[in-house]
Amino acid sequence: MTTDRPDTFVTRFAPSPTGRLHKGHAYSALLAYARAREENGRFLLRIEDIDTVRCREDYIEGIYEDLAWLGLTWETPVRRQSEHFADYEAALDRLKAMGVIYPCFCTRKEIAAEIARAPSAPHGPDGALYPGTCRHRSADEREALMASGKAYAWRLDLAAALTHIGEPLTWKDELKGTVTAEPETLGDIVLARKDTPTSYHLSVVTDDALQGISHIIRGEDLFHATHIHVVLQRLLGLKTPIYHHHGLLLDEHGQRFAKRNLSVTLADMRMHGMTPEDLKAQLLSA
């Protein structure tokens, strides 16, 4: 169904079609869907398929099948990120014009070697941070390397971005209260690559703004990403939604559910006779 109602509460479930949905996905989707119904708001489904190598059409169909099995409905048409690269390129161009991003010509191997030479290099939630090698290149050097055809990625110049913003950033999390952003924990993140003209961070904040998302309900594994998302939102003049980072479901070994573990996928559960009611009762007791 499609609606143009001017609701103030709009949330979304935004899976990446690189495998079948599992119990953790079901938990997050059901929380968002239930909240939208409680608030008389809107629930959107978005397909985050910027990775054109790993994302597959059969997984997209599987997402529709699994969510329908759970009893969820959503508005159409569904936004697929792979169909909107122009939106992300426009956002990237705005950041270029501000002077808050720079081309990085380092390979992953070169970055790893640089980090190995500096064991005290700062670390974030995803490991060692990019050491800033290309941040210090001159404009002439950058232009020469780009003209030579050398591959590069666009990185956020976090120091320049924070100087541009000029004030502390905060966001509201329904479970943690007002949170002061600490984007230094992620450093100069990649915003686009030669083979993919956007990144998760850039495309997500762009989509959330374009779709009018007011509340983002997602797992606490993405809490750290919000430190960067509020930076991009402020730079691009976008409204910061209210966040709700819920706890993660864990397996019997205390590990997060993963798509590679086929035994916890909704498709496998359905094949072995589990009903949506059984699963919902199981999730509510988790």
CATH topology of the largest domain: Rossmann fold
Percentage of residues assigned to helices: 25-40%
Distance between the termini: 32 Å
Radius of gyration: 20 Å
Summed over residues and divided by their number, the pLDDT gives a mean of 92
CATH architecture of the largest domain: 3-Layer(aba) Sandwich
Shape: globular
How would you characterize the largest beta sheet? 3 strands, parallel
Low-confidence stretches: 1-6
Strand order of the largest sheet: 1-2-3
The H/E string reads: EHEHEHEHEEHEHEEEHEHEHH
How many domain units?
2
CATH first level of the largest domain: which class?
Alpha Beta
Notes on the protein architecture:
With 286 residues, this protein is α/β, with parallel strands linked by helices. The chain folds into two domains: 10-83 and 249-284, Rossmann fold; 86-193, Glutamyl-tRNA Synthetase, Domain 3 (Glutamyl-tRNA Synthetase, domain 3). The chain is built from ten helices and twelve strands. The strands form five sheets. The chain has a three-stranded parallel β-sheet with strand order 1-2-3. The protein has a three-stranded antiparallel β-sheet with strand order 4-7-10. A hairpin with a 2-residue loop joins strand 5 (123-124) and strand 6 (127-128). The longest helix is centred in the N-terminal third of the chain and has 16 residues, at 23-38. The protein is globular. The model is unreliable at 1-6 (pLDDT under 50).
